[in-house]
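in:
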């Protein structure tokens, strides 16, 4: 199993509504992309970050997720909202 964690620093001018929509879009990926075992998204308004925790059956499943058109659609929505991004992938 591969765990994929992303933390975004959200731009200051992003509204609460945009943050909620980002979270919603991220969470819909579990039903739109095969071989995704789990997705959780969280907003931490105290420090202006959002996180994504996800699990995949394999490294190949993670790569397929990242290349999937639904993921690319969400990335296009997310990119303008974030100032920075950190990613951690590891196998268990």
């Amino acid at each position: 199993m591969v765990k994929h964690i992303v933390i975004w620093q959200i731009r200051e001018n992003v509204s609460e509504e945009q943050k909620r929509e980002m979270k919603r879009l991220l969470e819909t990926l579990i039903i739109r992309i095969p071989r995704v075992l789990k997705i959780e998204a969280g907003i931490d308004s105290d420090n202006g970050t959002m996180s994504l925790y996800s699990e995949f059956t394999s490294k190949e499943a993670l790569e397929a997720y990242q290349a999937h058109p639904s993921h690319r659609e969400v990335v296009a929505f997310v990119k303008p909202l974030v100032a920075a991004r950190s990613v951690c992938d590891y196998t268990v």
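note: The mean pLDDT is 97.
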